[in-house]
Design brief:
Radius of gyration: 16 Å
Order of helices and strands: HHHHHHHHH
Largest sheet: none
Shape: globular
Distance between the termini: 36 Å
Oligomer: single chain
């Protein structure tokens, strides 16, 4: 694991409580393991990681998000989402493939919702020309996919509603 990945994982484990772990595990229905760190702790951990590792470029951000996502642990996956939200400005239309994989493996709408609304939607808004056309085709494919979570994500990402 990368130094940044170890920092995030270790910090999330240190921020956990058994009470939050029990509550999150019950809420998620056992679809993912949980550490028991709060959403605020996850956001703070990512913020601290971005301060500590200031020079993360596109490849570093996408690699770290994949590294965090690799383990089926809710807080690690949420940290990957928060990282992508924080660095959406460096993402490219080709990153939709990685995000699609994340959505297929999410295991909960608590991860699909922010990926669609806070990563894919702003990513689409910043694209232009051929990159935007290619990304729109990807979302059209998602909308017709057999995976209900991917169809749901496509609807969220293309919705003009802001809630």
């Amino acid at each position: 694991m990368s130094e940044a990945g170890e920092f995030v994982d270790h910090t999330l484990q240190m921020e956990s409580t058994w009470e939050k772990a029990a509550e999150a595990s019950e809420r998620l229905g056992g679809s993912l393991k949980v550490y028991g760190a709060s959403v605020g702790a996850v956001r703070g951990t990512v913020r601290d990681a971005l301060k500590r590792y200031k020079n993360l470029d596109h490849d570093d951000v996408t690699a770290l998000s994949s590294e965090l996502w690799a383990e089926p642990i809710f807080e690690r996956r949420l940290a990957a989402v928060v990282l992508l939200q924080s660095k959406v400005s460096v993402l490219l239309n080709t990153d939709l493939t990685r995000i699609e994989g994340f959505m297929r493996q999410a295991g909960t709408r608590e991860l699909v919702d922010p990926l669609a609304k806070d990563v894919v939607r702003p990513l689409m808004a910043q694209l232009a020309g051929l990159a935007k056309e290619r990304a729109e085709r990807v979302l059209e494919r998602w909308a017709d996919d057999s995976d209900p979570e991917l169809r749901y994500a496509a609807a969220l990402a293309t919705s003009t509603d802001t809630p």
